[in-house]
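Our consortium's second objective concerns turning raw sequence data into structural hypotheses that experimental partners can test. To show how far this objective has progressed, the report includes one record in full. It was chosen at random from the queue rather than selected for favorable results. The single chain below, 482 residues long, was entered without modification.
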Amino acid sequence: MYDVLIIGAGVSGCAAARELSRYKLKIGVLEKGEDVCSGTSKANSGIVHAGFDARPGSLMARLNVEGNALMEELSQTLDFPFRRNGSLVLCFEKENEGVLEKLRAQGEANRVPGLRILSGDEARAMEPHLSREVTAALYAPTGGIVCPFGITIALAENACTNGVEFFFNTEVKKVEKMKEGYRLVTDKETYETRCVINAAGVYADVFHNMVSEKKLHITPRKGEYYLLDRSTGDFVDKTIFQLPGKFGKGVLVTPTVHGNILVGPTATDISDKEGTNTTRQGLEEVAVKAARSVDGLPLRQVITSFAGLRAHEDGSEFIVEEVSEAPGFFDCAGMESPGLSSAPAVGKLLEKLVTEKLHPEKKETFVETRKDVVNPFLLPDDERNELIRRHPEYGNVICRCETVTEGQIIDAIRRPLGARSLDGVKRRTRAGMGRCQAGFCSPKTMEILAREWKVPMDQITKCGGNSRLILGVNKDRLHEED
């Protein structure tokens, strides 16, 4: 019997796990993927929104602004990359400049600090590549960028260090009410718990509807992106939006915390909750719309494209509450943009709701901080040389594009919730995220994974499940060649 079981190891579920790990509670996280950050949280814009575009008085507006304010301190405490680079919302027609004024007034009602309306020339002074079409822009200095993998893994590792159990490759099939608490039937085992946190992303409606007559409906909203090489990283400094429309904030152009440029997303409502394929039509739309914001966007430097899904709730609102007819069942649903920005505040709200229900004692041994994988190339020369002298694997570069060493990959594997796949290593170290997109480093990374986990190479996967890169060895053929 658990005190709390969390369905989903995305950023919201991991934020809740981390905050609740402060208490003397038995907590588990059930995740159908092979790692944390395997669903919605892994494929988004990495934007920490200032909070001016959510409806005043909404939970979305409140949690966005609170989450934004918490992000900087949290990034220092848990050692993940975050930068407050500011954002611009562009207007292209004089007659629409009133919309910028409305956005500013809305942001001020949401208590977003420092909002200013700039002329087109003032905006271009900040961002020289802005289109000559830009007549005005809303500047939000508190906007930021974060690594979606970095924050989610940091929250999860810290929760694990503080006693939270994580069960991967474990898909919840059914939620059943018991006399006291809930029974969660998975494809492996059955778990019982006093409380459930439903942080299942695009599947949150499925689990809500198993315990409530008041039905919830989540629409997967697909967004397609281009990622540009790090050689383009100084093309823009601010996150550049266009005036928002019916389906959200539109196509953006933004730097990432790792020095790339990200362009996208589209916004297409689909029915397939696993529909993360890219399309020619979608990517062409991204290119055309982004070109209106900036001149000379270097799309010849694209190194990959990808798509992610946002969990759009019919009322366009976050739902973070106890289900009225299901005591102890807490929804964390509709976490579309600005869900990533709001995650620190979402975790604290769920902490408040659950602890008011269970009245647990706080731990005296809670570990507040966490350190990321050591990057030897960020150390002073004398410290790096001493590290390599003591641990020569930190001098053996495996990924040339991102300059990732064997030591960093070993660290990523041996950490709490260590990497078990190529994507797991990639999310923790960036090995495979560079220009060649793992074309060079995959074999060496697989060798290290196989050695550390003491399994054959053909058991190593790209992202869990059946995503094996080596299907086996023909021993007879090897003997023939001998």
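The partners drew two points from this record. The CA atoms of residues 228 and 241 lie 17 Å apart. Residues 59-78 form the longest helix (20 residues). Both points have been shared with the crystallography group to help prioritize constructs.
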